[in-house]
């Protein structure tokens, strides 16, 4: 069972600064740092989610972005766009890829920032702009 933990921006940034390759969420980073073993059921859950198809899966928020799903944001007067592609986010302007939304966002905006705060948006089927936060399951 997952439980939310409320931490400051500095602590959140420090967690991601400690990330190693293959660690795709805070749970994996902290489990390594704290010497915890991930229960087999959690490992199976993540393996199933990642194998369920292309696109990008955000395990912490239980959101799957389908292959080709496009997001965008404006930062300091410039528009940035990214697409879910083969398990990573690919920036359209540079072609560089990022395993997580946090890594993608850090490539644009310096410093820690909540990527679900409404800056990243998508267009729904009707063409309306919506925050990616609308994609998270209701609590």
Give an overview in words:
The chain is an alpha+beta fold. It has one domain (9-135). The chain is built from four helices and eight strands. The protein has helices at residues 9-17, 26-34, 40-51, 101-106, and strands at residues 56-58, 63-65, 70-75, 78-85, 88-91, 97-98, 121-123, 129-131. It has a four-stranded antiparallel beta sheet with strand order 3-4-5-6. Strands 1-2 form a two-stranded antiparallel ribbon. Strands 7-8 form a two-stranded antiparallel sheet. It is globular. It starts with 8 loop residues before the first helix and ends in an 8-residue tail after the last strand. Residues 40-52 have low confidence and may be disordered.
SSE class: alpha+beta
Mean pLDDT: 84
N- to C-terminal distance: 14 Å
The domain tally reads 1
Assembly classification: single chain
As a percent range, the share of strand residues is: 15-25%
Strand tally: 8
Largest sheet: 4 strands, antiparallel
List the helices and strands and how they pair.
Blueprint: H1 9-17, H2 26-34, H3 40-51, E1 56-58, E2 63-65, E3 70-75, E4 78-85, E5 88-91, E6 97-98, H4 101-106, E7 121-123, E8 129-131
Antiparallel strand pairs: 1-2, 3-4, 4-5, 5-6, 7-8
